[in-house]
Amino acid sequence: MGYTSENLAEIAIDTPQTLAEPSVRIKNLDLNFGSVKVLQNLNLDVGKGEFLVLLGSSGCGKSTLLNCIAGLLDVSGGQIFINGKNVTWSEPSERGIGMVFQSYALYPQMTVEGNLSFGLKNARIPKEEIAKRVARAAEILQIEPLLKRKPSALSGGQRQRVAIGRALVRDVDVFLFDEPLSNLDAKLRADLRVEIKRLHNQLDNTMIYVTHDQVEAMTLADRIAIMKGGKIQQLAAPGEIYNRPVNKYVAGFIGSPSMNFLQGNIQTGDTDVFLSGDVSIPLAGYAFDGLGRSPGKAWLGIRPEHILTGAEAEAAPFNTQAVIEIVEPMGSDTLVWTQLAGERIRIRMDGQSDVREGDTITIGFHAERVSLFDEATENRI
To answer: For the ABC transporter domain, which residue ranges apply (predicted)?
Structure first.
């Protein structure tokens, strides 16, 4: 379980021992580029052996945060602890981290073996130890047959394995990944995603992984930190973020296709309902958050895969008729566009669904599947 900005702020900045020591602890971190605030009072704990993913759109600050942890950027304020040691102003080589970059950054004139051993030789590690570490990394990453090749003779996936291996041979407790799969095609990304998951399960080292790809985040992470504007919007397990997003931004960011939203009003009484246009959606069964139920303007969100059709929709507490506008066959799924309360929405149906544009279908859903957000703050209700 992580700690929020609020309760971390209560912990004295010079007494990290007040809590069980995490693998990486970031306290009140600020980073400014001139007058531009990139990271703002950011607090984050990463547990030992945890796989944490920093997720967000371009410019949200996720790679910047990773570079601060690695020591590649000087922070403007706050502190960074790795394994209990204050490394805020330490050199990257002194932080006990291994980093894998988006670009492979391999030495083209060296063999795979040379690339893996180069940093160890510079650190004056004994030859026997170097050979042992290189052999172990090659075995784990299944690149033993490639050791005598040069990078030009490798595929993109093989080069990325070598880049991971170069971090692996350092034998550190914390690994940092900066969008390592973004330069690969879809199949290679899927294959290497599995390899990284297997690697973490095998090593049980702490890993912090930056990506803008939510599939990578959902499949790899123990916890996900969703970032926006240099701040963490939500820090939780993938299932928690998917099912109970803390605000409208997180709800819309997670999920592909993204969540459908209806604008309207919550009306409370003997029966709580959400009113949007001429549509009245019963809210019986919805789990209101800590703020409790209260009337007012709100957004209702429902994921495309949670909208029922046909007989299942007819049995749901809310159902209505809808005309199909667009059908997008996607193989395993069929994505259907229609309208509800004057808003265009998407429905994920079975790939074998026999539907066509112009068909009228019954759609519906259960209140347990929706998310409600205050219109003004956009926070979960």
So the answer is: 24-254
